[in-house]
Amino acid sequence: MDDSKMQVIGLCRFSYPALGGFQVEHDTPEARAAFLYDPVRMEERFATFQSLTLPPLLAQTDPDFTLAIVVGDAMPEALLMRLLDLVQDMPQAIVIPRAPGRHRQVMCEVINHVREDRPLPSLQFRMDDDDAVSVTFVQRLREAAGDLGAMLRKHRYIGIDFNQGHIARIGPEGIHAKPTVETLWTPALGMAVAQGASRGIMNFSHAKLGRVMPVVTLPGEDMYIRGHNQFNDSRQKDGIKPVRLPLLDAPGEAAFRQTYNIDADAVRRLYSQDSPCA
């Protein structure tokens, strides 16, 4: 099976006011939108998206992929223009406005909207707007799918789990981070979806993927960053303690530049006194 002709589709939910899909609940879409578009929260979202999420996507060793960025159709125009400015030099990015709707249903529709009719499986991944993948992620995902051969002919869905990476937090000092190995975390979790299959990566709970399909886990290479910050949806519940993340030293910063194309100096500049993130 020719992996070079498989379409690679990424999906990023950028402050989309979905119905469901959040661990922090709100009574109405309007209440959720007010929470999502809060100026303090949006400054942090843009900071992480600009300095963590985008740099490795812009430097992929295999640039043949599509990134669907889903936003609310009532996103304030100033925020939408700011987002469009950030991705204007990224031909793979498509910003797709959608009205509030059931989370999985809307995300599935978006993926199918950008999915091309090819006689091969599509390779799909999902990420939050404060996460990142390595610069080799698309290449490694495509190579892994190519190695699956006979399995792709037998199964409509196959999970491809790159389980090694980092937890990181950015700020005025630079990058705080530590290595981690976790199974079925959403950053760098891919899925091979058979031609004609109506469901995709957003139709399944990532933590339960191994219950409904084969999953191939690929350790040994740093492939993702799970971003930590004060607005992490999964970290808003009582009793969840912050993770201690040491500040990267010079060798650590160099490794981040090589693996993720993320520059600690650029992070510090973003948080300088002249930056709205300060």
Written overview of the protein:
The protein has 278 residues and is α/β, with parallel strands linked by helices. It contains nine helices and eleven strands. Residues 232-238 have low confidence and may be disordered.
The share of residues in extended strands comes to 15-25%
Order of the strands making up the biggest sheet: 3-2-1-4-9-6-10
Distance between the termini: 50 Å
**pLDDT average, as an integer?**
90
> Can you tell me the residue ranges where pLDDT is under 50 for at least 5 consecutive residues?
232-238
Helix content: 25-40%
Series of H and E elements: EHHEHEHEEHHEEEEHEEHH
Q: What is the SS-derived class?
A: alpha/beta
Q: How many extended strands?
A: 11
Measured on Cα atoms, how large is the radius of gyration?
18 Å
Q: How would you sum up the major sheet? A: 7 strands, mixed
Shape: globular
In DSSP terms (H or I, runs of 4 or more residues), the helix count works out at: 9
